[in-house]
Amino acid sequence: VEIGDRAGQGRLHAVLGSALQSLGRHEEAEEHIRQSVVIAEEIKDLAGKARVLGVYGSLLSALKRPKEAREKLEQSIDVCQQIGDVAGEGRVNGILGTVLQSCKLYGESVTKQTRALYLAREVGDMSSMAKANFRLAMLSVLLDRPLQVRGTAATAEQLCQASLDLFGQLRAELDPSNTDMRMSILEQEGCSSHLMQVILANQQRYTDAFLVADRSRAQTVVGEVGRPQSPSPSLPVPMDAVDGSADMGPMAMD
Prior knowledge:
The protein has 254 residues and is mainly α.
């Protein structure tokens, strides 16, 4: 502040806001993130503004304020389009789709997640592609029908398998020393695995569901000895136990 570095001050507010959010101190986090947006607008930092508006939207969603979350996320998408940030636009579409799903606006959510998948493919963002496929698989289950993806009807099983394949590829290509990223991928892959178990169980394909669960457990043990995750259920929960606002783990929000 003393040297007049408004850009640095704005970044610091954003970092503090994210840190406070991770600690569950949402009200304090919101104040810092709001200040970051104000500074980004003041110094005409459009890239920073788009990024922080996305963070703000995620925070408001966590605070159960979906209408405000949607507003901030749509503003972020608009700025991303202005500056040509295709990757950022795709990621925020994914977050917005999750917010709309939590409001049971499934049709709108499908549109946003399909857009997120398309943009992720455009820039080769495998992580965002995996997340979008997972979210679309969840929506396919909730709607009890295949979804049109790039002009082709895709079933929940196909979408979920695409997510699993992409996470597996990401894990295989990751530097083994990057433990935190490996944990993150394994956790997200576990969400896709659990959803696949639900899909297969609903089709009464219990043997296949158990095989998916066993593979997931084996990957966790091999990849993260000494840092166990929650074990996969011995039998997948039926889909009627999952409502439209279900949070299937870290992929619900970026």
